[in-house]
Specification:
Layout: E1 12-15, E2 22-25, H1 28-41, H2 49-60, H3 69-84, H4 97-120
Antiparallel strand pairs: 1-2
Helix pairs in contact: 1-2
Length: about 120
């Protein structure tokens, strides 16, 4: 669904979504610690971790910090495979297990986005 606009630069102050206290984020390690705390709070949540992070990360960090070239490449590959009906490998035994796992994550998150958009339009 894209990245919200954010121009945060270290160090900066934001309210922690987990403790609700104002916190100074001085580096990426502080952001990652907050991220791990968030993930722990979502374990028993009815929404996917991806959906929760999409809404919570912009509250305390620039979401673009988490987008790697590898993840963008995997999303493009997934789209090419789905849109152009390209096989991931000659056989299931030859398929890269990491890529299969990442494609499952992408497919699940796209399904969650589709569900969210459907709920929003009802």
């Amino acid at each position: 669904m894209g990245f919200p606009h954010s121009s945060l630069q270290f160090p900066y102050k934001r309210q922690s979504p987990t403790t609700k206290q104002t916190k100074v984020y001085t580096n990426m390690e502080d952001v990652e610690a907050e991220l791990y705390d968030l993930v722990d709070t979502f374990k028993d949540n009815k929404f996917s971790i991806g959906r929760n992070l999409y809404f919570y990360i912009p509250l305390f960090a620039d979401p673009r910090l988490f987008g790697s070239e590898e993840s963008m490449r995997l999303v493009k590959e997934y789209n090419y495979m789905k849109n152009y009906h390209l096989p991931i490998a000659n056989s299931l035994e030859e398929a890269d297990s990491y890529k299969l796992e990442m494609f499952d994550v992408i497919a699940n998150e796209l399904a969650a986005i589709t569900q969210y958009l459907g709920e929003k339009n009802v």
